[in-house]
């Protein structure tokens, strides 16, 4: 144990003196992702609040053809802007971003409305314009409301109650909590945390393997009165330490960043207090030995820092891919999925952020399978370092 401790301290101290390692492990991965996440979420929240609070500016072609509709829209907070250009110009202006949308009242609108026929209204919009999504939806809701009101008045004029148009009334009962809704945004945080964890040990894993070989310092190290297994395990433990610290700092930075994000404006709340941070750390730290072992094994086959970086940049996408799949498909935790490293950590962490209880069996399966695979990779690394070919 004293030999392992000596190798561990040697690698930690050497890499703490390397500015590149420190910046990648404790700055770019730790601070950049939470900062970007907080910034983008804050912008989205402020935009949603602004869209709801500001008057709805509604450019209309042919407003004079629908006076009752215009009055209805004004009474419900819309600001009507009569524009004189034609339909083709409306398409061009919406596509260029000059207008978020344009309402066109065709010539036949009044005539068909008077005959009790469906009166046409054309709303020119650009669904690819994400900035206009909120205001466009407000315009749609107002136009739909006017349509329902007109239908009800037509029925009343014929002595029929408007209720006959609603044979089934569907009442949605939303069981989602504010913390649960926040997972729609926070679901990708586990991806960033695992990425930050891997980046935290990335350069150290390369430097202690391919870097030693490239500098020619590996052979003198192997000639010391230390077994090769002790040497490589000590190096892997140093990588694990950097990864664990990077993970903890990322979670703390995320918790601090979320305290400044106005999620309440979106009807959400971040369940990311100190207890949740520690719980997520406890769940995800089991991935540290697996990540360190994987990077060490891959780097042991390379002969230079550049080659190791190239291979690891590709290989590290493998453990992150299940998280992307789970986020896109809304995967829920099951006992079988707990046997998949990275995915099990994502699912458990997501349940913690949602405020749901987690099954102790799921935790046990996740920790056991992840640690087991990590120990296998570390064992493979020790076997690889027994080969004379490791010297290049």
From TrEMBL:
GO cellular component: plasma membrane
GO function term, MF aspect, one: ABC-type transporter activity
Transmembrane segment boundaries: 21-44, 183-206, 236-261, 276-298, 310-328, 361-381
Presence of the UniProt keyword Kinase in the record: no
Keywords: Membrane, Transmembrane, Transmembrane helix
Name used for this protein in its record: Sodium transport system permease protein
Naturally occurring in which organism (per UniProt): Povalibacter uvarum
Lineage: Bacteria, Pseudomonadati, Pseudomonadota, Gammaproteobacteria, Steroidobacterales
